[in-house]
Amino acid sequence: MPNLSFPHPPRRIVLEQASSEEMLERMRRWSKLEASNRQIVPHMGEYQREYLVPPHRHSWAQFIYAEIGVFMMITSEGRWIVPPGHGFWVPAGVEHSMQTTGYVSIRAIYIKNGVLPNLPETIRVVGMSNLMRCLIEEAVHLAVEEEPPADSRDGLVMALIREEMGRLPEKPLGLPMPGDPKLASLCRQFLDQPTPHAPIDSWADAMAMSRRAFTRAFRRETGLSLSAWRQQACLFAALPRLAGGEPVTSVAIDLGYDSVAAFTTMFRRLLGAPPSKYLAA
Asked: With respect to CATH, is domain 177-280 assigned 3.40.50.300?
């Protein structure tokens, strides 16, 4: 098996699995969802530290808003990091799991397949408008079991959610994973201990490839250069810790950046704002 050598042991996180009672409750909720005659069904949930929602799928599309905390969504196509104040779109039928490394409070909207014809057909992280935040917060507190009349207040809230959903801007917070098993194994090793300094030659040697052949293969598998993928992986490692209140300096040093300025430059280039402003938005 290919292997990357790291100078320090990776920072391990032991994830708490859902209990059998929690899984039964989740299955009951999904069964109730599948039988619902509503077009949009809101839901709210809380997760404690280091929690894993196992892989699952449903026939409804799902939009998950991170009210508090950071979570990661994982599919066969890759990983997506969802910071506070952002949303995650999952098309109907796509298998996905959710992982948290700190307290997370979510608001979710399930949308019956085919109700909104112009919604995205691919997984993505989106920014949230102030209007959408307020609409989702209102929706999860509505005591409605049946589809509300279109001209009622509850019906108008749902109509505005449908209208606003397609206006939310996509954010570059995805991390595609390669389909090649050997390369995917290297990527998972790197995600255990991301660093901006892992050289291309080490990856190429681990894959028994020339540097040129490796760079072509990596871009073909992920759609990104190794440098861009590596930076995105470092961002994934940083966001949950920053959202949890850790100082930028300690996060930057732990990730192997030469200076806080270098880390902040990377962060601003990828997300458009330095950590303090981005997480406060």
From this structure: no
